[in-house]
Each structure stands twice: as C-alpha cells, then as structure tokens.
Write a structure and sequence with these properties.
By secondary structure, the chain is mostly helical. The protein has helices at 4-8, 11-61, 63-75, 82-95, 99-116, 119-135, 139-155, 159-171.
Length: 183
Amino acid sequence: MTFPFAQAVDPGLMLAGVVMLALLLTVVALGMRKRRRRLRGSMEAARAEAGTAEARKLTALDGAALLAAVGEAEASGQVRRLPGLYLSLAQWRLESGETGAAEDLLRKSIRGATTADLKETHARARVALGDIAHAGGDLATACEHWQIARALFRELHQSRDHDAVDRRMQRNGCPTDWVLTDF
C-alpha cells in the first residue's frame, strides 16, 4: 500500500528532509547538554564559594578551627574546598606575623584554585602574594601577581576588584599594558 503523497515526493528530497530532521534533533540535544553542564558548573562553583565563605567565618573564630577544617578537608579529599581554606589560613597567619607560612599557604591556595577552576580564590591569593612581595621590596614580583589577579577579576566581571587592583598597580608604577608571556 502506498500513500498518495509518497508518490509525489522525490526520494532524494525525502532523504534530505530526514537528514535535516536528524541535524535539528542533534543541535537541540547538544544545546540541552551544554545547558545542563553550565548549570552543574555553576552549582559546583557556588558550593566551592560556599567553602570560601565558610573559611571566612572560620577566620573570625580562630586559627585552631581553621587548622581543623583544613585537616578535615585534606583527609577527605575535598579539593574544591581546600583553596579557600588555605587562603583564610594564610590571612590568619599574616595577621599573626607569620609571613613565610602565609606565603606557602597562598601558593597552595593558588595551585588548588587553578586545578579546581576557582578563579576568585586564585585572584585573591595573587593579590595577597603581591602585597607580601611589595612589602618585601620585590616590586617586579608584586606587579606580576597583581597583573594575574587583575586579569582574573576581569574574566569574572568583578569590576570593583579589577579596578582596585588596577589602581594598586598604577599607584606602585606597575606597567598595566604588558603581557606576562612576552618576557
């Protein structure tokens, strides 16, 4: 049994229609997958930033609580939580006058934040390392850290933080138009 419309349609045209329908369904499926990934990524980032907020609360409490939280996170392999905790612990160490220990913790924070794609934590750790380098008289290193932080804040669309780092760079005579890879 044949349908009357099937006799009037060219088989090549029908094949083209089927191919177009398959392409349309593929594009829709890819769009839905991309949207799910984006939502999942933003949820993970929110959880990681919650870890940073938790670390800020702990800083107000005391260093012992921070040390306990870092130990717990390290033991349970919470890699997205650790960079914020390291950053807070570094700030606590700085307030205690332990600059060397703070620098080590800031570097750990940067490594972890880079791996976990926590750009805000990475940027804040870079600003702190730049401040330490500046206080130690190493303006070139300070400028490099601030430049990286400024770029991260720009990428995150955090104009207030970006502008604050930019003003800091200008105030200290850092070049603001350089590219770090051109050295």
